[in-house]
Amino acid sequence: MVRSMQKNILFTTFPKQFSSLKRRPRSRCPAGHYYPFGLTMAGISSKALNGTAENKIKFQGQEFASKEFSDGSGLNMYEFKWRMHDPQIGRFWQVDPLAEKYLYNSTYAFSENKVTSHVELEGLEAENFMSKFKKPSELSVKAPDKDKSQIQVYNVVVKNSEKSFSDFKSDFKNSPESILSNSKATFNSPVDGEGEPTKFEKGSFIKIDIDGPANNGYVKVFKLEETDKSMSATFATMEGHIEKGVINFTLTDKGDGKIGFTIASMSQVDQGGAKLFEKTARSEQKASWNEVLSNVVKHLGGQEQSRTVLAIDPKKK
Predict the structure, then answer these.
(1) Out of 51, 125, 163, 184, which residue is the most buried by the measure of CB atoms under 10 Å away?
(2) What is the CATH number for 292?
(3) pTM of the full predicted structure?
């Protein structure tokens, strides 16, 4: 990564015949180049510019504590909001404040050791940046291997619905995020391939902010099918997402004021550290989808008639 700060530097390279002209300051950007864990590449960074004021804001936009002692020495560490990072050993000096929440991760690890693909979020957790600077249309699809994926199916049937099936379909099409968002995952409004707001349609993208480290990512709407009695939307995960996955949401008119809602997913964790935490992740995912089913019941204003939850691990298929 490269961070830079601007400051005004007066250039005095005018020929003598123009010495009476007013000289205006120009902007110059000293750059800081870093090794993955934050050590400075001295030969091509601002420290090579002798005679200029040192820029303290360096690696990942953090202040570098150095030369703060009277003898000219210093800690030589980065002051993240929650912890101090030592770039010489690539570790924090303090225990992760979120250690109990993320048991798979070392309590002193910097950016979960994924320094070529993630940035550190103030000493708490890592964030994937490989897809952060791409437009949704530039992201690649992450298709799961069905032989290595877990299949989950969630279904709820609501009776005496206060909403008609037609209204429910309309609500889902106009604002899927209002029904799918829950305490563990926030679904954002649909965007197009450029990241601009658009309607919910085949080819649109939805960013999902998932509770936990490095979990945020896009899904793409690959299918959107509709009849008088049903509606089906299929999402596929994109580059940057913690999983390879396909998710299908199906709305069904069962007649007599009964409406069904089904979530069917095929998911395969494919990020190194997360695989160690897969059991807990699946538990969180189960709670998340169950919460969505409850959202549907509340949205329809009826009574829950039945709820079904099914999970099939790869080894059992």
Answers:
(1) 125
(2) 3.30.530.20
(3) 0.62
For 194, the token pair is 């450029």
Quote the CA–CA distance of 20 and 172 in Å, as a whole number. 70
The whole domain housing 164 covers: 136-316
State the Cα–Cα distance between residues 29 and 3, nearest whole angstrom: 10
**Number of domains into which the chain is organized:** 2
- At position 103, the amino acid (one-letter code) is L
The verdict on 140 and 238 lying in the same domain is yes
Tell the residue number behind the tokens 């953090």, with chain if given: 62
Residues 180 and 34 in one domain: no
Residues 159 and 196 in one domain: yes
Do both 201 and 112 map to the same domain? no
Are 140 and 124 contained in the same domain?
no
Looking at the structure, tell me whether residues 162 and 259 fall in a common domain.
yes
Q: Which residue do the tokens 């030592």 mark? A: 86
- As given in the structure block, the two tokens for residue 99 are 């250690």
pLDDT digits (tens, 9 = 90+) for 126-174: 555 556 678 899 988 988 888 888 899 999 999 999 999 999 999 999 9
